[in-house]
């Protein structure tokens, strides 16, 4: 095996690995965005509490 063949083979493998890594990152980002959208829909579907406006505005630290 001569050095030119080895170098070109290594370059091709490195290029394929970089392409594969880039594709994996795009798929990962897409999955994260889909999960974020699903979580947002779930949070928006939760009912809002019907508490009076004065509740939850202060903390009694002397009790």
Would you write up a description of this structure?
The protein is built from 1 helix and no strands. The protein has one helix spanning 3-45. It starts with a helix and ends in an 18-residue tail after the last helix. The model has no long low-confidence stretch (mean pLDDT 85).
Summarize the structure in short.
This protein has 63 residues and is an all-alpha fold.
Which helices and strands appear, and what pairs or packs with what?
Blueprint: H1 3-45
Binned strand content: under 5%
Helix content: 55-70%
Instruction: Calculate Rg over CA atoms.
Output: 27 Å
Largest sheet: none
**How does the overall form come out from the CA principal axes?**
rod-shaped
Number of helical regions: 1
Query: What structural category do the secondary elements indicate?
Result: mainly alpha
Would you list the SSEs in sequence order as H and E?
Answer: H
Number of strands: 0
Low-confidence stretches: none
CA distance, first residue to last residue: 83 Å
| Average pLDDT number | 85
């Amino acid at each position: 095996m001569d050095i030119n063949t080895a170098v070109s083979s290594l370059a091709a493998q490195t290029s394929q690995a970089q392409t594969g890594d880039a594709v994996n990152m795009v798929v990962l980002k897409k999955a994260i965005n889909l999960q974020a959208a699903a979580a947002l829909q779930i949070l928006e579907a939760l009912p809002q509490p019907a508490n009076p406006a004065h509740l939850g505005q202060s903390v009694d630290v002397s009790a």
